[in-house]
Amino acid sequence: MAFDPATLVYDDRGLIPAIAQDHASGEVLMLAWMNEGAVARTLATGRVTYWSRSRQAFWVKGETSGHVQRLVEMRIDCDGDTILLLVDQTGPACHTNRRSCFYTGLRDGAEVELLRPEA
Amino acid sequence: MAFDPATLVYDDRGLIPAIAQDHASGEVLMLAWMNEGAVARTLATGRVTYWSRSRQAFWVKGETSGHVQRLVEMRIDCDGDTILLLVDQTGPACHTNRRSCFYTGLRDGAEVELLRPEA
Asked: What ipTM, to 2 d.p.?
């Protein structure tokens, strides 16, 4: 059936969490938020577009940094309240210049840096 | 440095999103929510424990179904407001009996079922 972004389940702020995963390596890169308009724009343009909670504006990933995310496939979960984005990530996904935002691991009760910023 | 679950960033409900990923295959299995107590219990027991928003109670994943998640490693993101769980998943992660909750893909504007329930 044809997909309508309005059928997803948004929270009381009108947002839904979106996980970005590298389509080739399977690495989980980041989690950010979308509203209905961001879902529609991402599907229409193939450029992953989030909703910035801090700026209260659309956030076309990589628009200023060049670290764009090209949408390979959007998936939705069983409850319709989470999005999984399979993406082709140019450069680092994290604003710290690391490949993934999940660069801190907990090992033996302590934080360990797993990734270094890229050059 | 030693990790304290209180240092994570919880939303106004006291919750933080947690992504579960198969540690071996890289498959993203589900997203659920934790509060500070669930983070602490997961780290202490090695059994992934969420906070059920519907039941308002701890949810030891697989406690009734047997489809447990053993924690391999917990990671946190750059903002401290999302958790990534690398897990060893027994059986299907989804309550629909599918391996992953993200079994619906959007292709050519339509919903496509990517995974079937397991036998």
From this structure: 0.96
